Amino acid sequence: MEDFKRFFFRGLTALLPTILTIAALVWAYDFIDRNIARHLTNVLIRVYAATGEPTFLLGDAEEDALIHGTPINEWDDRGRRLTEEYKIITLDILAEERDKLPPEGQATAADPIDQRDWDRAQRARRQALWQVAFAKWKLHLVGFLLAVVIVYFMGFFLASLAGKATWRLVERLLRRTPLVRAVYPNIKQVTDFLLADRTLTFSGVVAVQYPRYGIWSLGLRTGSPMQKIQKTVEDELVTIFIPSSPTPITGYCITVPVKDTIDLDMTIDEALRYTISAGVIKPGAVLPQPKSEDKD
To answer: Which of 15, 42, 67, 91 is surrounded by the fewest CB atoms within 10 Å?
Structure first.
């Protein structure tokens, strides 16, 4: 039982980072696809539908519509499940509306309404055919790639001087809009923390008495304290991050006088290894030499 527990957690430790990475990528893909790519794909379908039917992409249009269309809770007399696109493609309204059209040269004031109905039905058929073609050949990926390109150029523009000025105006407007101003700043703080292009740097490794005097903890010096605290205290202060063991990505941030810290001759990597190993791996540590036995 002890071996099972040890090997199980060892396997979990190895697989969990990969699984979480894949889950994050899937979530990012789904988020972009649902909120941006699908709308771009619908625009592309409408544009292509205005040019005609995708006869070169479809074999049997009705059969493809049954296979690649959006299923609905209806079945035909052959037991096949119908789709939204199939019903649009085979809709009898096309024939009905065509029969309503007057003979050429005999149009009346009421006839344009029938012509518009016919045009709408034809446009709906072409859009349904293009939706089936996109689903059959996985062309919705074009919308996703286009969304990625748009996001990239959006970031490229915002990195410019004009883009920064424009975005400041947009943010100022959002912060003044009722309801939005109560939500937007908080969401922006979270997204900036997760996605901002920055690196967290430490300026050194120190020992500090934490959580109480007499107990020494390893800390990473992050920088200067908040101005309000420094102005209140006469001593020079420093901000220190106390990493937790064995997961140093979490911990505590404290502000203490510089005189209460001890600079350690350790690199950041050595300090993290020391924390992760719960003090087992020490910088420059060597295995103790076995004592030699005196021989008479």
So the answer is: 15
In the chain the first and final C-alpha atoms are separated, in Å, by 48
Token pair of 56, please?
């070169």
Determine phi and psi for 50, rounding to 5 degrees: -70, -20
Beta strand segments in 56-159, E: 71-75, 81-83
Reported in sequence order, the residue ranges of the chain that DSSP labels E, i.e. its strands, are: 71-75, 81-83, 204-209, 216-223, 237-243, 251-257, 261-263
- pTM for this entry: 0.63
Give the amino acid at 201.
Answer: T
Rg over alpha carbons for the chain, rounded to the nearest Å, is 33
Structure tokens at 1: 């039982």
Nearest alpha-carbon partner for 268 in 176, 199, 198: 199
Sign of CA dihedral 221, 222, 227, 228: negative
Residue 94's H or E segment, with its range, is helix 93-100
List the 204-209 sheet strands across, edge first. Answer: 251-257, 237-243, 216-223, 204-209, 261-263
Q: What is the pLDDT of residue 119?
A: 83
